[in-house]
Amino acid sequence: MTEARPQLSFEFFPPRNEAAQASFRAARARLAALAPEYMSVTFGAGGSTRGRTRDTVLEIQQTTSIPAAPHISCMAEDENSLLELLNGYQAAGIERLVALRGDRPSGGGSGIFDYAVDLVRFIREQTGDLFHLEVAGYPEHHPESKSPSLDLEHLKAKVAAGADGIITQYFFNVDAYFRFVEEARAIGIDVPIVPGIMPITNYSRLARFSRMCGAEIPLWIAKRLEVWEADGDTESIRAFGEDTIAALCQKLIDAGVPGLHFYTLNRARPTLALCQRLGWPVDASGVT
Fold it and tell me: Residues 11, 134, 140, 242: which is the catalytic one?
């Protein structure tokens, strides 16, 4: 494994209670030692975690040396509430946002904008170049897209509206990412496209996430994980997951990707173990 290291970023979700808060803070502290470019915080379906997202972002910004990057969603209640949120982030020194359409509430409904491009355009109209804006890209497919080509056109529109960079949905087929970047460049998308990385630690949860977001779990991975999970063999899942995702990351690094964005699920150990496998100086011992 190489010792060269691309820029790293880590994604967290806002903790629900005091126990989860303690776990998040411990993970954040351990991962902060890797000096990531930023730490992002998700925004729940329908804006359900708006307050907790804001509090988590401000805690990162105020208590660490790592820049925080809140997710901003189309599911905000109205333009005034969105402007209030943006103004609050500006006052707190936030410089990067992740602009997404966001998940609709389970009972249906919609937000103030239908698409992320409208949100990007609104943020630029209201705040100019104040924020660095990241948007989402889907190397395999968006679960609601009609075709890969239309999905790329939507991505191009987000960049034209003012997006500075793209973070991809996670994937396990590295060729899907390479093809996605090639096709994006071919239609004039020239901003950095950072691959999203999902550690493998639990098959049922991974399968559920993947169904929701349109990420394919290759059969050769799924069948092994199914058997080990049925047997309660968490150690085999852990070892196989580290082998598989470390190899994926190495291929991406060798190809010169601009960064790696880890979906941490508020746990430090899986990400630290991968970084250790990639040859970077970290201590993953005794970490959950």
Answer: 11
Closest CA to 50 of 61, 58, 62, 60: 58
Q: How far apart are CA 234 and CA 147, in angstroms?
A: 37
Which of these, 255, 264, 207, 260, lies nearest to 230 by C-alpha position? Answer: 207
Q: Among 211, 183, 195, which Cα is nearest to 248's?
A: 195
- Spatial contact of 101 and 115, defined as CB atoms under 8 Å apart: yes
Structure tokens at 50: 């708006």
Distance CA 271, CA 264 (A): 7
What are the tens digits of pLDDT across the range 74-92? 876 678 888 999 999 999 9
- Of 185, 132, 189, the C-alpha closest to 158 is 189
Q: How far apart are CA 78 and CA 273, in angstroms?
A: 42
Q: How far apart are CA 9 and CA 11, in angstroms?
A: 7
Query: DSSP character for 172?
Result: S
Question: For residues 263 and 19, what is the distance between their CA atoms, to the nearest angstrom?
Answer: 20
> What tens digit of pLDDT does each residue of 46-77 get?
555 678 889 999 999 999 999 999 999 887 66
- Residue 11 pairs in a beta bridge with 40, 263
Whether 242 is catalytic: no
The per-residue pLDDT for range 87-146, each reduced to its tens digit, is 999 999 999 999 998 665 555 555 678 889 999 999 999 999 999 999 999 999 877 778
R_g of the chain, CA atoms, integer Å: 18
How many other CB atoms are found less than 10 A from the CB of residue 23? 16
Q: pTM for this structure?
A: 0.92
CA 256 from chain centre, in angstroms, equals 19
